[in-house]
Design goal:
It is a single chain. The protein has 156 residues and is mainly alpha-helical. Helices cover 60% and strands 7% of the residues. Strands 1-3-2 form a 3-stranded mixed β-sheet. The chain starts with 6 loop residues before the first helix and ends in a 5-residue tail after the last helix.
Length: 156
C-alpha cells in the first residue's frame, strides 16, 4: 500500500533526508549504508518515542530511519528541533553501536536477566553518547557562527 503524503509531509521528509545526511557526516557513517526515511505507525511504539531505526537488514548495509506519525503534527520548527537534536542522532548512534550490542547479547546466551541488563545499559549508553555529540555539534556550530560574524567586521 502506497502512502499519499501531504505537501507538509513531503517537505518534512525532505528535511529529514538532509538531517540524516548531515548526521551521517558528523558521525562518520560509511557511505555504503543506505539510510532511507520511512513513516511508521506508532501503535506499536513506546508512548514517548518519536522515531526508531530498523536494523533488521543491517547485514545488507540498509537501516531505515523510522519517523512516527506524530512527528508530522509538529510545526516545522518543532519538527526540525526534534529531528536534529534528538531523533536522528539517537537513532544513528544505535547504528554505530549495533554490532557491539549484538555481540554483547550473544555472549549473554540464554541468561535473560543479563540480556535485559545489557539492553538497559546499551540504551543508557546511546542516550548519553547522543547528548555528548549533539552538545559538541551545537557548540561547534555556535563557534563557527561567532567566527563568521566577527570576521565580517562591524555592522554599519
Amino acid at each position: 500500500m502506497e502512502i499519499i503524503l501531504s505537501e507538509k509531509e513531503k517537505l518534512f521528509m525532505e528535511i529529514a533526508k538532509k538531517v540524516v545526511e548531515n548526521w551521517r557526516e558528523v558521525m562518520n557513517i560509511d557511505p555504503i549504508w543506505e539510510l532511507p526515511i520511512d513513516i511508521y505507525d506508532e501503535d506499536d511504539a513506546p508512548p514517548s518515542a518519536k522515531g526508531a531505526l530498523d536494523v533488521s537488514e543491517a547485514q545488507y548495509y540498509r537501516a531505515p530511519v523510522l519517523l512516527f506519525e506524530g512527528m508530522f503534527d509538529l510545526s516545522e520548527e518543532e519538527f526540525m528541533a526534534e529531528l536534529n537534536d534528538k531523533v536522528v542522532p539517537h537513532e544513528l548512534t544505535h547504528l554505530v553501536a549495533v554490532d557491539f550490542f549484538r555481540t554483547a547479547t550473544l555472549m549473554a546466551r540464554d541468561n535473560d536477566q543479563l540480556r535485559e541488563e545489557l539492553r538497559y545499559k546499551y540504551e543508557q549508553f546511546v542516550v548519553r553518547f547522543c547528548k555528548i555529540i549533539t552538545t559538541l555539534r551545537n557548540e561547534n556550530l555556535r563557534l563557527r557562527y561567532e567566527l563568521k560574524k566577527s570576521s565580517a567586521g562591524p555592522e554599519e
